[in-house]
Amino acid sequence: MVEAKLKYSRRRKIAEIDNRIYGSFVEHLGRGVYGGIYQPSHKEADSKGFRKDVKDLIRELNVPLIRYPGGNFVSGYNWEDAVGPRDERPKRLDLAWRTIETNEVGIHEFFDWSQEIGSEINMAVNLGTRGIEEAKNLLEYCNHPSGTYWSDLRIKNGHKEPFNIKTWCLGNEMDGPWQIGHKTAEEYGRLALETAKAMKLVDDSIELVLCGSSSGQMPTFGEWELTVLDHACEHIDYLSLHQYYGNPDDDLEHYLARSLAMDGFIKGVIAMCDAIKAKKHSKKTIYLSFDEWNVWYHSIEQDKQIKPWQVAPPILEDHYNFEDALLIGCLLITLLKNSDRVKIACLAQLVNVIAPIVTDENNDNKLAWKQTTFYPFMHVSNYGRGVALIPEIESPGYSTKDYDYVPFIESIAVYNEDKEVVTIFAVNRSRENLDFEIELDGFECKEMYQAFEMTGYDVKETNDSSEQRVTPINKVDFQFSEDKIYTSLKGLSWNVICIKVK
């Protein structure tokens, strides 16, 4: 049997993990809102029309931050359409996704819902068709206590206390030619700078996210980052990254190595942030918000058949399989490996739209259910709170068309000092079992706290509303010494190992 070794030292830390790295995303897109989180006709709907079964599953994920309301949608959005009495709200054409937006759910409804599930809002402003005035007005509406036109309008509409939203995105993917109001780097950099200055005059406690490239494959990637940062770096707090991954060529080894591409993308953007910091002789460190990441490729062809101008059509509804869950585990580990600079990340998206949670379309009886990707996200979000430790991995590997060496083992450990628990997350990319030795330097291993594994499934196996075929089970095959754990990582497996230490 092949062997692999992993060592973590209490003294070798990456960073204290910002819990917002376990954020998600709800866009007015497809059935993400209508028919997803909100469905008044469903038997599980609460008094406000939001589905209780969906809320329960989101609470299991323990999501601290949700980006809203877009996404491409925000670049044509008039937020004023979705406040005030519902029967007076206009229906609008959403040009981003060529659907009808009813505006039944707006900032009031979404804020109340987010409070119920224990999440903060990461609010995006429209810098596509709109600009500085609308952005500062929305901020005043949300955060100013009272005594002004917009704050008093919020009070009139039912919220005496401010929403106090702290994290704000300055538009969305403004480098993309598909974006409504697409801009050059110079145009966006100037607009973002002036919008940031105005917003921080309204509320200087907020944090702002500047749009980076829509992906690392954009032809302007790099030049875009350097230009927009050159304009706005002293007035913003985070730079965004977006990237989606897929396996259209059905090449499992290449697919499971995509986390190496994510790591390179992150490190490249960090280098650009630091280059601008040096250029400007600045003391300010720009952190990263990886506020769109996920697997997305299964639904692309079927979405071409969707007719325009429907309300909440079923678009971007990827049906995830076991290999997707393995990659999601690798991507989560990669984010934690870069948690010294990645402080916010948003799994895009949360319900129905390329999401871990699914509701059956036009079915008022069935409950929401969990995709295969639900489980690794749930595990890392719930057990990955604390300090990320630097991994020292000895592992055999393989090569792909992009990489000469891809280790079989992808892993990270998180130390929660309050609970006195070290949690190791590990993916075995190999099809073979690996004898696995874990050394915890500076810790004394007391007992196994929790352990789970997902393994043994066909890589194309999926879940659905009738059966949860791909789920984690308890992992039991361990041996202990004072500072070492010995176990086996099954071929193609997701593993969570929580150890009580002192």
Summarize the structure.
It contains eleven helices and 26 strands.
List keywords for this structure.
single chain, 502 residues, alpha/beta, eight-stranded parallel barrel, seven-stranded antiparallel β-sheet
Walk me through this protein's architecture:
By secondary structure, this protein is of the alpha/beta class. Helices cover 25% and strands 26% of the residues. It is built from eleven helices and 26 strands. The chain has helices at 52-61, 107-117, 132-143, 149-156, 185-202, 223-232, 252-256, 258-279, 300-303, 322-337, 374-383, and strands at residues 2-9, 13-16, 23-25, 65-68, 92-94, 99-101, 120-125, 167-170, 207-210, 238-245, 287-295, 342-348, 357-358, 369-370, 387-389, 392-394, 397-398, 406-407, 409-416, 421-428, 434-441, 445-454, 473-474, 478-480, 484-489, 493-501. The strands form six sheets. It has an eight-stranded parallel barrel, surrounded by six helices. Helix 5 (185-202) runs parallel beside helix 6. It is globular and about 65 Å long.
Secondary structure layout:
Layout: E1 2-9, E2 13-16, E3 23-25, H1 52-61, E4 65-68, E5 92-94, E6 99-101, H2 107-117, E7 120-125, H3 132-143, H4 149-156, E8 167-170, H5 185-202, E9 207-210, H6 223-232, E10 238-245, H7 252-256, H8 258-279, E11 287-295, H9 300-303, H10 322-337, E12 342-348, E13 357-358, E14 369-370, H11 374-383, E15 387-389, E16 392-394, E17 397-398, E18 406-407, E19 409-416, E20 421-428, E21 434-441, E22 445-454, E23 473-474, E24 478-480, E25 484-489, E26 493-501
Parallel strand pairs: 1-21, 3-4, 3-12, 4-7, 7-8, 8-9, 9-10, 10-11, 11-12
Antiparallel strand pairs: 1-16, 2-15, 5-6, 13-14, 15-19, 17-18, 19-20, 20-26, 21-25, 22-23, 22-26, 24-25
Helix pairs in contact: 3-4, 3-5, 5-6, 6-8, 8-10, 10-11
